[in-house]
Amino acid sequence: MAKDLWLPKGYKLQDGSEVNSLLFWGDQWQIYGASDINNILLASPELAQKWHDKGFLDESLFDVITFGDASFRVLYSPYVYSMAPVEVNRRKLICDKMDALSFAIALHESRELSKDDSFHDAIYVEQYSRLLPTWTVTPRISDDVILGKWLTGGVVISTDSFRRLTQLAGWMDAGDIAEIVHAAGLYVPADVYVPAGKQSAIAVTPEGEREILSQSTSKVFSLPGRPQIEEFFNEHVIDIVHNAEKYQRMGIEFPSSIVLYGPPGCGKTYAVERLVEFLDWPSFPIDSSSVGSPYIHETSRKISEVFDKAVKNSPAVIIIDEMESFLSERQTGATGQHHVEEVAEFLRRLSEMTKNKVLVIAMTNQIDMIDPAIIRRGRFDHIVEVKMPSKLEVSALIESLLNKLPKEDNLNVEIIINALTGKALSDAAFVVREAARLTAKSGKPKLDQVSLDTALASLPKEKNKKIGFIKE
Questions:
Q1: Of 385, 431, 368, 425, nearest to 405 (Cα)?
Q2: pTM above 0.70, yes or no
Q3: CA–CA separation, 304 vs 291, rounded Å?
């Protein structure tokens, strides 16, 4: 970013304002305080023209000034209105509902003007209810995360994670937060109840005792690069949760427990994390490090405590990672009574979880080692194999990641896709992220082929490991 002042302190503008301190800056814009009641935004002619062409602000709102050999466009904003980069709120909490509502409305109105631009690097101009994108070479961020970060002072959280958002933005109640999220045109959970007297978006219940904020946007779970797992979760978890009434009529109260199995790096953990984030339920992990103990009965006690906490906070998710480490078959001979007790505790508690609205998802690399009693129907109804990503899945993920970045039109990603097919999806994410870093480092405005190829070449090469002595 350019910190050099484009205008000297004390410079007089056409409206009589005098330039004071530099407040914020970017490559093509600067914001100054002024000696009177205004803040002033200076933008390069190219950036201001782009705002005009895309309909964000008409060029007639800008004055034209020349200083030395440079020409700038100037926008004035009274101090009573915010004029600052969206990211600046990382350093503070707003603690004012009307300020938050104004930002949400600006986000919604700006999104109506452009369906494609990202506003994570935008300048917030409250006076005109606009977020002005600056099109920097940085990964795009979705609107739900932009608003979540703005409400929490910089915590990376989506407004979809509504329960956690209400905890982090504790200076407002859930009803106010729902109203703000709704004003931004974003999804609000259908079960968010708020006191009467909010905005018209909230409908009165027949009883008149409380109101429910309607769901403003259809909520769809997506898992870029893993369409089969996405389809499975949507059908066997999301649809049952979001359409509980029709399933309850047929005796299905809650999603059944699930086991995901497959080789390391196939994306099991990634899929589960995205699902938990989407559901926005409390999650409770069970793995060898969290419940393992050398003391007799201690592991069983810890396992029982996790199940109890999940039931108390239901609906909730229990995530069992590396389940083979403590749920292996009891007939292996070396497990002992201690291990038999742990498996028995799982068997006892698993059957209770569905009726207590706790979704149990387990993961393993070695499904053959798991005790048969654990993975039979009635405990884990769904045993889902997760294979290493196919070429189509790698292509989908890379396309999804690249679409979030400004990039050259002539990229040839086929070589990248072929090289990454069959490897962990995290490798694909690394290559795109590294290419973006190299692009930003070199000062290029868009990600190009050279950066992408260089990022691919930086992946560690697989080597054959040899153990023991080698005879020369």
A1: 431
A2: no
A3: 10
398 Cβ partners below 8 Å, 6+ apart? 413, 416, 417, 420, 428, 431, 432
Residue 234 belongs to a domain: yes
Cis peptide before 445 (omega within 30 of 0): no
Question: Do residue 208 and residue 321 come from a single domain?
Answer: no
Domain count, the chain: 4
Q: Which domain holds residue 425?
A: 391-457
The pairs formed by 410-416 with CB atoms below 8 angstroms and a separation of 24 or more are 410/449, 411/447, 411/448, 411/449, 411/452, 412/449, 413/452, 415/453, 415/456, 416/452, 416/453, 416/456
Kindly state whether residue 132 falls inside one of the protein's structural domains: yes
Query: Do residues 321 and 401 both lie within one domain?
Result: no
Q: Which helix (H) or strand (E) holds 322?
A: none
Distance CA 70, CA 65 (A): 9
Task: Kindly report the backbone phi and psi dihedral angles of residue 91, in degrees, each rounded to the nearest multiple of 5, phi listed first.
Answer: -95, 0
| Residues 371, 270 share a domain | yes
**Across the strands, what pairs with 285?**
319
Same domain for 420 and 292, yes or no, is: no
pLDDT one digit per residue (tens) for the chain, 472 residues: 346 889 998 898 877 778 988 999 998 999 999 877 789 999 999 999 999 999 999 999 999 999 989 999 999 999 889 999 998 754 455 567 888 999 999 999 999 999 989 999 999 999 999 999 999 877 788 999 999 999 988 888 889 888 888 888 877 888 889 999 999 998 887 666 544 544 434 333 333 333 333 343 446 788 877 888 999 999 999 999 988 889 988 999 899 999 999 888 788 988 999 899 888 888 888 876 555 444 445 667 777 888 899 999 889 999 988 887 766 655 554 444 445 566 677 777 887 888 899 999 999 888 888 878 777 777 888 999 988 888 888 888 888 888 888 888 888 889 889 988 888 888 888 899 899 889 888 888 888 899 999 999 988 765 444 444 444 4
Report if residue 469 sits inside a domain.
Answer: no
Other beta carbons within 10 Å of 325: 16
